[in-house]
């Protein structure tokens, strides 16, 4: 199918093209042939011609489904083993899911795992004179107390301090200072986190850096009780 051959392959390039299409070339000859194939347009045409020619040889052959036992042997040779039915392939995953659900239910029932989570608590705080609008937010899952400043500016050369008042007779506990950013985020230790439900939040104006005494010394701008929304 091609012109004169100058190939070192047995039979020349034309014969090599036919053997290449049939998959009969040795591995070392395949590398030589494919290197030439990438550069030789006529050789690529030869390969295409041989592919079309060999394809026509199977046209008169009627299609016949192989017997099941033959198909299983072919699949075993190709894939290493016969394929399992779909239900056998899926069953391990179903059993795993059922086992995981049973373990989770047992943990919940025994009290090791609780489906109930502590609610987030909020308190709205305002200062009419300064135009401050603050939202206090207690996030129990991360044990973080946050204050978001929605409006108003912080006083110059003064600090706003956050206080937690656990009960009517309890002394205020300082949680920290409101920062210049819109959101103040304060990690809370476990012993203070336990006091959050039902507690009152207060904001006081203090000297720069906060109260020097550990208790509010300046005016209380506003108070609010933590509650669910």
TrEMBL record:
Keywords: Cell membrane, Membrane, Transmembrane, Transmembrane helix. GO terms for cellular component: plasma membrane. It holds the Pfam family RskA_C. GO terms for molecular function: sigma factor antagonist activity. It is found in: Cell membrane; Membrane. It is a single-pass membrane protein. The keyword Transmembrane applies. GO terms for biological process: regulation of translation. Residues 207-219 have a biased composition (Low complexity). Residues 97-220 form the Anti-sigma K factor RskA C-terminal domain. The chain crosses the membrane at residues 93-115. PANTHER family: ANTI-SIGMA-K FACTOR RSKA. This is Regulator of SigK.
